[in-house]
Specification:
Structural class: mainly alpha
Number of strands: 2
Strand content: under 5%
Distance between the termini: 29 Å
Length: 249
């Protein structure tokens, strides 16, 4: 019940009520108040138990995640441009570009953080150590894929993509013990998406780059799960490399 309350709050309201910048920020801020109370009512110690902990190294983990997400998604969009699947016709001019950049960075960060707190933080807080880790990862990835239907609609390709990406984000949270690196990855991916296609939920608004769709089907977009799998491999390699992640005990 607690999961449904915070999940439906986050996903339903923007579908029924168009939100400008200021109302959206208020709606996002209230989420943290709601999540704190729901967490406590379900036996948790507020949003800290959802993984939102200011532990030593949290900023570093956030930066590392952001770089990973940004670089891999930027590579995917660069390949789309090289193979003619998207055409860049220009860039937003100032001051519109500056405003867009601020809104994209701030809005995508809050959106990524909130989604991670719901889909992974809340689920992990209640089920970690109660079910096997592999089952927990699969469950959180399935919930992430179902939740993604709110934005992207349902199709098999998108579901496979979301499942693999959900495993990457869930594995990161499982290994680090906090939400920050997972949110950083998610944030970087969403910022790159916003730069190319615009901020989700704003119909008709274009991204920082002014783009047009190229002719024909895109092999890269049809196989975007490869990039999600690359992210998973990168995360697994990173956690076992000598470059140690700051974790929460």
């Amino acid at each position: 019940m607690g999961f449904l309350i915070i999940d439906l709050y986050f996903n339903l309201i923007p579908h029924f009520i168009p939100l400008g910048t200021v109302p959206w920020l208020l709606y996002a801020a209230f989420f943290f108040v709601l999540a704190r109370h729901v967490a406590r009512l379900t036996g948790l110690n507020g949003i800290r138990d959802l993984g939102m902990k200011a532990h030593y190294g949290w900023k570093r983990n956030l930066r590392i995640g952001f770089v990973y997400g940004t670089v891999i998604w930027a590579t995917m969009y660069m390949l789309l441009w090289i193979f003619g699947n998207i055409r860049v016709t220009g860039v937003k001019v100032a001051p519109e570009s500056v405003i867009f950049l601020i809104e994209a960075l701030a809005g995508m960060f809050l959106g990524s953080l909130i989604n991670d707190l719901i889909v992974r933080g809340y689920v992990f807080a209640h089920l970690k150590d109660k079910i096997p880790s592999l089952l927990l990862l699969l469950l959180s990835a399935m919930i992430y894929a179902v939740d993604d239907v709110w934005l992207a609609g349902f199709n098999v390709q998108n579901t496979v993509f979301s499942m693999i990406l959900g495993l990457s984000l869930g594995y990161t949270l499982l290994k680090t013990g906090s939400i920050w690196m997972s949110t950083g990855i998610h944030w970087g991916q969403n910022v790159m998406y916003g730069f190319v296609y615009g901020i989700p939920g704003r119909e008709g608004e274009r991204g920082l780059l002014l783009t047009e769709q190229g002719p024909g089907n895109s092999f890269i977009l049809n196989n975007a799960h490869i990039f999600a799998a690359l992210m998973l491999l990168l995360v697994v390699f990173f956690t076992y490399s000598r470059f140690r992640i700051n974790t929460v005990n």
